Amino acid sequence: MVERVLPKLAIIIPCYNEELCIKNTVNQLLVVLDDLVSKNKITNESYIYLVDDGSSDSTWSIIEELHNANNGRVKGTKFIRNFGNQKAIMAGLESVREIGCDCVVSIDADLQQDEWAIERFIDEYMKGSDIVLGIRNDRKTDSFFKKTTAVMFYKTMNLLGANIPMNHSDYRLVSKRTLDILELYPEKLFFLRGFFHEIGLPTAYVKFDVKQRFAGTSKFNFSSLMALALNGITSYSIIPLRFVAVLGFFMALFGFIVGLETVYEKLVFHNSPNGWATTIILMCAFGGIQLFCLGIIGEYVGQLYREVKSRPRYIKDVELR
Ligand code: UDP
Ligand code: MG
What we know:
Layout: E1 9-15, H1 22-38, E2 47-52, H2 59-69, E3 74-79, H3 85-99, E4 103-106, H4 118-126, E5 131-136, H5 144-159, E6 172-175, H6 176-183, H7 192-198, E7 203-208, H8 222-236, H9 239-269, H10 276-309, E8 316-320
Helix pairs in contact: 9-10
Bound molecules: uridine-5'-diphosphate (UDP) and magnesium ion.
The site of magnesium ion (MG) has 5 residues, from loops.
């Protein structure tokens, strides 16, 4: 068992056009921090770190205001443009590792996740877990569409061997040790949920209730969710590629048998086959399957392409410490 000392906690918040939420969220989280300090669960050096993911509204000036008003308890950085939620969380994790902390919690700017669950995260951390995953009790607040696609995504991921717990979004606590391991991973495109599962450190789960978004609208749309899902799959599993190979083998075998049968009929019965419909159906089916498989391979080639270019994950414009 690891010996834990009173931890310095960092809370990171990715923000993209959250001018309506961010002030309330930060103030509410400061209340949570004060509460935890008074219960002697974290040190009073604990702080909040906001990552402005290239917002085009007044999010950043609100963050500056909060920074000035709170004397180092509110820190933050601003990206030069929008890099996406995963990169914003990544930047938060890397920054608080640099600034210093014993553990870090990531939470959304709209405070949909129950901020009072952080206390239970800390309790699990003190008991020795390096990773504490927040698991939502239900998906009441999600639209039917989001619920169904999310379930489909998790089912697919788990079928592909990623084994990510259902109903876990990016609300989690990770220890300093986890952050050190994260630094060893050079890949640029991260699917954090998969990563934290994969490294296999002692993990605990904490259930929490989901609330309605405090203000503003969801920053995800169909295509960004789709991109997240595809990136998750291609960065965590090569099973689709194996599937393509196996499928190709059986299709080839099937083609070979049909070919043999055709030649046999021709030679023995001397009748040219009258299978116009069959031919067209087979052509379409084979064409479709081939394109689908090419598409799967293409996704992986794309993943390689982006990794090989090795561009920076994100670029900070300014930082307030
Ligand atoms: N977010 C971000 N960059 C983006 C999109 C979203 O940093 O490009 C942040 C957003 O500000 C919020 C979190 O990611 O803090 C989750 O987004 P949102 O609440 O819109 O997603 P939902 O709860 O609808 O899944
Ligand atoms: Mg939300």
